[in-house]
Amino acid sequence: MTIPHLKSVQCVSPVGLHNMAYKQWGDPHNPNVLVCVHGLARVSDDFDVMARELSDVYRVVCPDVVGRGRSDRLRDPRFYVLPQYVSDMVTLLARLDAETVDWFGTSMGGLIGMGLASMQGNPVRKLLLNDVGSAVNPPALARIGEYLGKLVRFASFDEAAHYIKAISAPFGPHTDEEWRKLAADALRQDHEGQWILHYDAGIAVPIKAMTPESMQRDAALLEATYDAITCKTLVVRGAESDLLTLKVAQAMTQRGPKAALVEIPGVGHAPTFVHAGQIAIARDFFES
Fold this sequence. Notes:
This protein is α/β, with parallel strands linked by helices. Helices cover 35% and strands 21% of the residues. The longest helix has 16 residues, at 212-227.
């Protein structure tokens, strides 16, 4: 069985240095690198199944975006924003010393990938956007905002796992074992033995500070970012997603990189890529 190596890289923000943790699967000297970046309130462990499967071809690198999982927390939560995340990924890519990379991004991880792939001289060869795109549906952001950053605590793992399953219902059908893995990845025990979420509640600060004016500016910037991408791109959409609408996804096939589009039935935001059929979508795209 392939075992990942836990590593970290030092990054910089306007308020100082921080360490970003990442898991590396496969041959550390393999020049074929696949970077997998998780969603807003998730962690690198989400990719364990897919990374193991693809490590026969790739060196698969799965970072914990700052503020999540094993990575440091920022001293000022106002910098939990996409420009900071993109900057951290540039530092990570320098550490990996790869001439080109393929990118798999779920939700926020896809937005980070878009930001990187839109820049001149970027190393992204192929970009898979998992249930995210050139526009984000405001009602979905409102739904996520209802639970993001809440300081919830649970006396038992089972109680905490039930909560994770409830807020993650749009992920679609999973076995009990898969749900426990998804919960275990997103939880940790504090010094009192209680179960808490494995991220800094401060990640919600910039989202809660949004105004109608800032959302309008961000929407225009996101569209321009997508249109600037030139690499081969695949959009994967959960057929019941409330974050990436079908209208937006279809428009993405006609503009910018003119992405290919695959829909996964019975799933909302966002497909987890722990099932063989979903992993096959990624493998076929990256290895074609």
